[in-house]
Design goal:
This protein is mainly α. It contains 8 helices and no strands. It is globular.
Length: 301
Amino acid sequence: MEKRQILSRFATVLSLGILFSLGLALATEPSLLSVEDARCRANLGKGVQRQMAVTAAQKARCFKLAMRGKLESTADCHDPGTWVGTRMEAGAIAIDRSLSLSRKLAEKGCSDASSPDLLGYSLCPAPCEAPIGESYDDVVGCLGCVTASCLGDVVRSAYGSPRTLSFPEEKPVFRCQNVLGVAIRVYLRLVVRAQQRCQLMQDREKEAFLGADCGNLADPAHPFASTFQKARERLFKLVDKCVSRYGVDIGSQLDTCGTDPETLAACLETVSDACAQAMFAANYPTPAIGAESVGAAAPAR
């Protein structure tokens, strides 16, 4: 793996996510969003959560097959587009269905919301960088692109390009790799849910959440700072199992972004935080509307 290049990319994405989050925190004021607009953003977030969970789970399943030597050579676990005609074809279908569900959630939740451009959805952020049209279907496509891209970075950091293992001799390596897959999925689920819950409460003008930087759970003043600490502790504990329970030499037996439990856990945390920030920034751009103009535009469907 080109670890320096990957970590450099994570740092860039994380910086952009923090800037987006800070801009949102400064711009979000009481009565900025209508109930319909808040519901729309929440439903878009649910779609992101679903796609993230399904994609990560299917990639983990793919790597299990690959490490056991049961996956066709044409399938690349990092690229679901190569899964057609292989044992992972059902996984590719599941990912496509998660995107379809996101569109249904958007259709249901955004039918009475302001138009996408008034809610800040005008240009899809890097690395997708494409104009967003007048339909919330276009917004879903943007969020799907950002989610797939940053999640791919996280998965690549945890798995790299794992080789076919010899069983039963290398079963501990297999178990360790599976634990790393669980670690990133659990961490991202907890962080993203907390971010989105905070933003929904802020959009609904709940006093305890006004002024909070919802995208930055590392802030001790964040309403869900304790959730972040628990997620972080669980991540480090799961990574440590590779050595404490399975006796794996991370540096020589795995192709990850770390060389020991400490550096690997820290790397996975950094990469996952960058991904969560990127998804949050794409999901919650600064609205281009004020209280007096909310809902003034014709609803976008």
